[in-house]
Amino acid sequence: MMVIDAAATVWWTDGAPVRLVWQGRRWRVSDHPTRLTVTPAALPTAITHAPERTVGWRFQVTAEDGETLVVDIVPDGAGWSVARTWN
Known about the structure:
Layout: E1 2-13, E2 16-22, E3 25-29, E4 34-38, E5 53-63, E6 68-76, E7 79-86
Antiparallel strand pairs: 1-2, 1-7, 2-3, 3-5, 4-5, 5-6, 6-7
């Protein structure tokens, strides 16, 4: 795993990422994106379906030259950043 903090431009379809430009390269999402969520720690015991907040996305991307990575993207101001990658 490599921890990174680099801005990315992300394109979305139906609420999920489908493409991104990151570090000057174009990548397409090549699997099913997974929302990364958090649940509030202190909730009343009567709540059976705790609310979740999306804190990022994890998915596989493939570049035009065939390189494939798994990336986590997280909100960064008004945009997104690649936070981690795996080969």
